[in-house]
Amino acid sequence: MTDSLTLDLSGSPAEIRRVSTAFREFVDGHALPAQTRFAARLALEEAVTHALALASDTSQELTVHVEVTVAPSELVLRVEDTGPAFDPVGAAAREPSRGLGLHLTRTLMDRLDYRHERGRNVLVMRKRRAADRDEPT
User: Fold this and answer.
1) Predicted TM-score of the model (pTM)
2) Which of 18, 66, 92, 114 could form an SS bridge with 102, CB 3.0 to 4.6 Å?
């Protein structure tokens, strides 16, 4: 069975807390290992923080759409934003030392896909439902 959480955010930094709280409440209702919850929450917070930071350098109004999907074999995080085009997957590959957040996201998640379509950055992050190793949540 697949279940999803959807959030539409403004460009306010306070939205990071809202995302984190909503994510925790949502995944608490699913039998996800602590390791998976921790990695996904941190990656999601990093992706939203990064979108907000890039947009703060411009006068462009930012909207962020977040979708979290729990599927039988994986957790899928989708972050779409209207900020300046930026490929975190390609940037991390070209400059591995650039940005701790990018490094963390690549390390924590099993797969990252990025595309820019219709004026929106679309980042999809996937985490397999690994065995619980009693890591922090």
Assistant:
1) 0.85
2) 92
**In the structure encoding, which two tokens stand for residue 126, read together?**
């996937």
Number of independent structural domains in the chain: 1
Structural domain harbouring 19: 3-128
Tell me the DSSP string of the chain.
--EEEEEEE-S-TTHHHHHHHHHHHHHHTS---HHHHHHHHHHHHHHHHHHHHHHHTSS----EEEEEEE-SSEEEEEEEE-SS---HHHHHHH-TTS-HHHHHHHHH-SEEEEEEETTEEEEEEEEE-PPP-----
Q: Tell me, what amino acid is at 33?
A: P
Residues in the chain: 137
What's 81's domain CATH number?
A: 3.30.565.10
pLDDT tens digits, one per residue of 92-117 = 555 555 567 777 888 899 999 999 99
**Residue 110 belongs to some domain of the structure:** yes
Is residue 127 within 8 A of residue 32, CB to CB? The reply is no
Whether 135 is in a domain gets the answer no
pLDDT in tens, 23-45: 999 999 898 889 899 999 999 99
| Residue 77 near residue 124, CB atoms below 8 Å | yes
